[in-house]
Amino acid sequence: MQMGKLQQQLCEWRHQQRKAFAVLIDPDKVTLKQVAQIAELCNEAGVDYVFVGGSLMMSQHLDACIQQFKRESAIPVLLFPGSPAQVSPYADALLYLSLISGRNPELLIGAHVVSAPMVKASGLEILSTGYMVIDGGAATTVSYMSGSAPIPRDKNDIAMCTAMAGEMQGKHIIYMDAGSGAKLPITEGMIQSVSRKISIPLIVGGGITDPEKAYLNCKAGADIIVVGNAIEKEASLIRDMAAAVRQGGVKA
Predict the structure, then answer these.
(1) pTM higher than 0.85 for the full model?
(2) Does some domain include residue 83?
(3) Residue 123 pLDDT
C-alpha cells in the first residue's frame, strides 16, 4: 500500500527529530462554540495536528465538531476513535487502532473486520496504529471496556517488546497512552526504551499536564505529544505546550 501524505510527513519528522504537538478534542465535552475557540488558539500556537474522538461518543456531533474546526483552521484533523462507529469523512485521516497491549481479540482485530467496509469507503488516509495502554494510576475507560489490563508503568521491557512486535506486524505508528485523566504520566524511561527500539513514529499521551512534562517526553523520544484533559480545564495551555514540544526537538 502506498504511503499516505500524513504518514510520510510523520516518518520524515521522526527522521529529522522534529517533534509535533496534537490537541485532543472529545466531542462529548465541547460545544461548537468552544471548538471554534480551540481552533483559534491552535492556529495562534502553531499546533501540528488535532485528534478528535472519545470513548463513548454520547453527543452524536462528531461530524459537526470536525466541520466547525475546519471552518476555522487548516490544521490536519485525525480521528482517534473509541469504536468503529466513529468514522467521519470530514477528517483527514484515521488512527486505525489495534489494542496491542491487551488480550481482547475484539480490539485486536474483531472490530476492524466489522468496520473495514465503512473505513475503506470513507476515503480517509488510514494510519495503522499499535495502541498501548499504560497504567496511569487510575482506571481508564479503554481498560474497562476492553477487559484488558494496562501495561504496568514500571515494566519498560514489556512496553518495548510490545512496540517492537507492533512495528514488525506492519503498524505505521505506536501510540502509548496513560489514558484520559491519568494521575501518573508515562515515565521518560519507558518512552526512551520504546523509542530506541522502533523506527516508526511514537505518539505519547495521558497525564501530561504541564509544558515541562511535554518537553521531557520529547527529549526521551516521543515524536508526537497529545494533550486533551489538561487543555479542557485550561485552554490557554495550548500555547505553552506547543512551545515546549518545539523546544524538545532538534535545534534548527
Answers:
(1) yes
(2) yes
(3) 94
> Which residues are CB-contacts of 166 (< 8 A; sequence separation ≥ 6)?
98, 100, 130, 132, 174, 198
CB neighbour class for 91 (10 Å; exposed up to 12, middle 13-18, buried from 19): buried
Coil vs helix vs strand at 97? strand
Q: Indicate whether 196 belongs to any domain.
A: yes
d(CA 35, CA 3): 30
SS3 126: strand
Inter-residue long-range contacts of 93-96, CB under 8 Å, 24+ positions, other chains counted: 93/4, 93/6, 93/124, 93/125, 93/126, 93/127, 94/119, 94/122, 94/124, 94/125, 94/126, 94/127, 95/51, 95/127, 95/129, 95/173, 95/175, 96/126, 96/127, 96/128, 96/129
Q: In this structure, is residue 252 part of a structural domain?
A: no
Number of independent structural domains in the chain: 1
CATH of the domain at 32: 3.20.20.390
Q: Position 47: which residue type?
A: V
- Segments in the chain below pLDDT 50: 252
